[in-house]
Amino acid sequence: MPSTEPPAAPPTEPARHRRPADLPDRIRHYIDGSHVESIDGDTFDVLDPVTNQTYVRAAAGKKADVDAAVAAARRAFDEGPWPRMLPRARSRILHRVADIVESRDARLAELESFDSGLPITQALGQARRAAENFRFFADLVVAQADDAYKVPGRQINYVNRKPIGVAGLITPWNTPFMLESWKLGPALATGNTVVLKPAEFTPLSASLWAGIFEEAGLPTGVFNLVHGFGEAAGDALVTHPRVPLISFTGESSTGQMIFANAAPHLKGLSMELGGKSPAVVFADADLDAAIDATIFGVFSLNGERCTAGSRILVQRQVYDEFVERYAAQARRVVVGPPHEASTEVGALVHPEHYDKVMGYIEIGKTEGRLVAGGGRPEGFGTGNYVAPTVFADVAPDARIFQEEIFGPVVAITPFDTDDEALALANGVRYGLAAYVWTNDLRRAHSFSQAVEAGMVWLNSNNVRDLRTPFGGVKASGLGHEGGYRSIDFYTHQQAVHVTLGEGHNPTFGKARTPTVTDVAAVADE
Ligand code: NAD
């Protein structure tokens, strides 16, 4: 009988580590319904963040692999049933995807947590959110209404909404499965076919989509997956002439590069980029709630969270109390192996990212007052573990105030007036989210409306409503997804003009003087 026990730990494996059973022996691309190696046979190492040892090799896609995936997706778009199916029929398949994801949430979370270092309880929440993303867009396309405009007696003009073609989806390594679903859901619901290029640090959960889609009944060729590095596989997608739109989530600097590389091809771009979001705590706020939420806001998902409230601005009257209580609570946040249910902060995704975060902690020691954490927590000899780290009295020109660290590190800065708080909040290149803590109604709305952020939460941490716009301003992104905005991004809205009654054509070439009506009609164009 086959054993259900996980494989024995390699000799160097730390004691509190768990390898999931039945890990794949290779991660391959999925092109036109087949799991395939790269055409040139190239692979790359995938590490697990607790041992930093290679646990599997993944196919390293290049231009030729992307070409094959795009050709399959284009064929499925031109010849297959998917773009032509009734929204209800597509919706049923996408609901089945959601059902399957939900029914496997524990396994998905186990693999995601192992591959990314996210705490298992949070990976479970992300798996459920992935299912919800599919349900949401499956429902939305069935309820989709499009505009019609009447010009009484003369015209009826309507919007013919159409899928665009092959959507290129490029995703990061933080909450990989969930962020993939955030793009796959609307891209597929609207009838496009796709090529997904997931992040190279975390390819494991992405490779599960193929089986899920097959089981749900998605036609062959609609979903294609190419693993590999950004500059090879990602760039081949960005510069591919038959990929008319790219939805990208990742760092702002990568977004800038993609924007430039896509320019000669004039494609649709949706850019969800980095953040350095402020949490602004006024003296009249409910401090207990503000502390709980701002602890969660930067230490959940290991701090590897685009909307992390990584700068906390606190009004002077409550500043000392806030810092003291915040630091004490941060020191109690449980760092542990990703698979343990009690873990609140797991292991950072990769040693390169760990080095980056540790580098910022060293910089922070010269820029602020260290009040919690400050390095590797005790008792963790290996793995990418970082103690929740809090710097107080951080000046607004400090690098740890200005730059995205993307780890469990927070900068706290005092302010006196509303104007000062606003200047501090807006004084960075990013503008993704903002969190405002006050019980003063007028201040809450005035501040929220003035802050340069794509999304604002009042007296709350990041609780998403999938109907609302999602996206950033300034260096945090271009365009908004969320609700019908995602549907807009993934569709053409063709205007069809229908003449009623007599046509109203200007008459040229009949040797008569143009009338005022003729000239007005031309001027309309
Ligand atoms: P990254 O920019 O390094 O990589 C993201 C993806 O882009 C990966 O798949 C990578 O392979 C690919 N890529 C890299 N170079 C490319 C190129 N030249 N052409 C095409 N593709 C390329 O980002 P990351 O480190 O994986 O993720 C962390 C970043 O993502 C953070 O900045 C975070 O704030 C951001 N993020 C933003 C949101 C949001 O919604 N705004 C959500 C999650 C993460």
From TrEMBL:
Protein name per UniProt: 5-carboxymethyl-2-hydroxymuconate semialdehyde dehydrogenase
Biased composition (Pro residues): 1-13
Keyword terms: NAD, Oxidoreductase
GO biological process: 4-hydroxyphenylacetate catabolic process
InterPro entries, A to Z: Ald_DH/histidinol_DH (IPR016161), Ald_DH_C (IPR016163), Ald_DH_CS_CYS (IPR016160), Ald_DH_CS_GLU (IPR029510), Ald_DH_N (IPR016162), Aldehyde_DH_dom (IPR015590), DH_HpaE (IPR011985)
Gene Ontology molecular functions: 5-carboxymethyl-2-hydroxymuconic-semialdehyde dehydrogenase activity
Region (Disordered) residue spans: 1-23
